[in-house]
Amino acid sequence: MAISNSNNRFSSKLTSQYQNCSLSALCLPIALADEDVNRLDQIIERKRPLKKGELLFHQGEEFDSVFAVRTGTLKTFNITNSGEEQITGFYCPSELVGLSGIDENHYPVSAKALETTTVCEIPFSHLEQLSSQIPSLKHQLFRLMSRKICDDQQMMVLLGKKNADEKVASFLLNLSHRFKKRGYSATAFRLSMSRGEIGNYLGLAVETVSRVMTRFQKNGLIDVDGKEISIIDMAEMEKLVGASSECATIEHV
Amino acid sequence: MAISNSNNRFSSKLTSQYQNCSLSALCLPIALADEDVNRLDQIIERKRPLKKGELLFHQGEEFDSVFAVRTGTLKTFNITNSGEEQITGFYCPSELVGLSGIDENHYPVSAKALETTTVCEIPFSHLEQLSSQIPSLKHQLFRLMSRKICDDQQMMVLLGKKNADEKVASFLLNLSHRFKKRGYSATAFRLSMSRGEIGNYLGLAVETVSRVMTRFQKNGLIDVDGKEISIIDMAEMEKLVGASSECATIEHV
DNA sequence: TCCAATTCTTGATCTATATCAGCAAGTGAA
DNA sequence: TTCACTTGCTGATATAGATCAAGAATTGGA
Fold first, then answer.
1. Which of A151, A180, A195 is the last residue of a domain?
2. Between the CA of A207 and the C1' of D13, what is the distance in angstroms?
3. CA angle, corner B208, sides to B221 and B186, nearest 5?
4. pLDDT band at A105 (very low <50, low <70, confident <90, very high)
5. B167 shares a domain with B199
6. pLDDT of residue A15
7. Are residues B40 and B84 in the same domain?
8. Do residues B43 and B145 share a domain?
9. Are B92 and B153 in contact (CB under 8 A)?
10. Which residue, A136, A172, B204, B246, could crosslink B199 as a Cys pair with Cβ 3.0–4.6 Å?
11. For the Cyclic nucleotide-binding domain, which residue ranges apply (chains A, B) (predicted)?
12. Residue A184 pLDDT greater than 50, yes or no
């Protein structure tokens, strides 16, 4: 609560540290005229880093901003009536979280940092106003929301139709694509979430995630060392996932 | 193809038949000034009815419009690489289909009529332009997309965490809420989709859907007569579903 | 209205994955 | 460093729901 409501800017030292990085270009990847970039920058607030486990916002809280992840990772989740957590998404740098709150004006999920995480806060009412003046910004917003719908529907296919092997392979390749898009290695990366969180997200028991990964390693598909993952046989992994996933296979922006 | 690309207006006879129904108010439920309603009406095209089984658009086809269902029902689906159909949603009257096409400028799914169905075609580029001039329209669009994201995430929870009973109960209550919202009975309605389609959508085998419904009937929760469903014990059904579903429980618009 | 094709239902089995259990390996606080 | 706690791995067993099979009920076309 305290955290997500604190809109304080950083101290001048930290602010200046970020000033000449084209922040908004990162947050909302889009080609804008310089003056528009400035206008966008003016409404964006840098927040203090979240420590692992801290909430960015929580389920039911009033919606007023979307957030762009700068560094670190977030998860969003629901608490179901039976008290268990259901993870609905993981958010890596450059990804936008909070869009689901627009409709009801309340966040329908909570967002929690999986590691030390920094975000930009973008007050939605300002963003919406600005989008009236900058058509390409409005279009980009529509696109981002459309992509989210598309991605979520792929996730529905995964949950409804795929077996444990396909789920885990899809998950790892999806992360791989997201890292690659950001300019990081597509074949070697660190999982910021636990096995339990992966299982929760994929609709699998922890033990199943563990077993599948071990078997993938045994079969030379990947190399696992705790949270460090290397994809060894990308072709075979892609074969497992199948050429499906309309949304996921196309590289964005 | 032919169908989804034909933007021909109806003959004058049909057009006049619809002219004095406030069409846009139905398509995009929103309070607009009269002049704005007219502007919206001008960009909306009524299409000839689709017969059962006809495609409104298909996976991969270029995106140019979203569609509001007027009467009947649609399903959207992917064809997976293994050739099977995966249904990603059902669309009842007043609901908007096609939003997932904005991002890539191609529909990532196909949309097929489950029965004779009429839709309004809303060319998205026009809608987007108009939304610049009518802020409340833009906001409504953001809300609709946000709600879709929210609903899809509830669906992910359903697919990932719920058992067969909970899935079927959730499905029936979700339909019930949607009918109620439109002014129809929340307790007695007709399923326009087959058991097979329900199972496909819920990640269950046809047989399981059949068995669960039979058991629900035996236990006095519902009454089933082919495609006619009556919800007898609403309280018990809601208990089955659980008080979860942030998005679904709140009545919209 | 009749026949063929589809859809639905019900029962019998099978299986992928959950659950249970116990141990190993990290991780963090004092 | 040690201890308590969490996270991860692996084997044994249980089970929800899939699959297989066959008959019943609908549906739709001629």
1. A151
2. 14
3. 35
4. very high
5. yes
6. 38
7. yes
8. yes
9. no
10. B204
11. 28-111
12. yes
